[in-house]
Design a protein that fits this description.
alpha+beta, Alpha-Beta Plaits, 2 helices
């Protein structure tokens, strides 16, 4: 059965989309040609262990990809907002942490690199 073509969406003004992004997977349909279709998505994406393409999608991304013939499966909505200040690490705090992590290595020096010997 053929799907009816979608009507062209109304273009939104930049910044008019609600402050939400979706976590989802993008799937090629029969209408998508070529093997490297994932390279042309123009969204933040990563492949997962099952070969699916996981992506962070705006509403505009969803509309565009649907119009291009992709199938989307949305798993979770995430509000967009300022980053929690408690999650930001200062340079001083990071240096203190990394020094603590590496301090154990000073007590146990690394072995000498393997030197290949040649008989000539």
């Amino acid at each position: 059965m053929k799907r009816p073509k979608m009507a062209k969406s109304h273009k939104r003004e930049p910044g008019s989309s609600p402050n939400v992004r979706f976590e989802g997977t993008v799937h090629a349909t029969r209408s998508i040609k070529g093997k490297d279709w994932a390279n042309s998505l123009d969204v933040d994406r990563v492949p997962d262990s099952k070969g699916r393409i996981k992506a962070i999608l705006s509403i505009d991304d969803c509309v565009r990809l649907l119009e291009e013939g992709f199938e989307l499966r949305l798993h979770r909505a995430q509000k967009i907002g300022p980053l929690d200040r408690s999650l930001i690490v200062t340079d001083k705090a990071f240096k203190k942490w990394i020094d603590g992590q590496l301090s154990g290595m000073k007590d146990k020096p690394m072995p000498e690199p393997f030197a290949e010997t040649r008989d000539t």
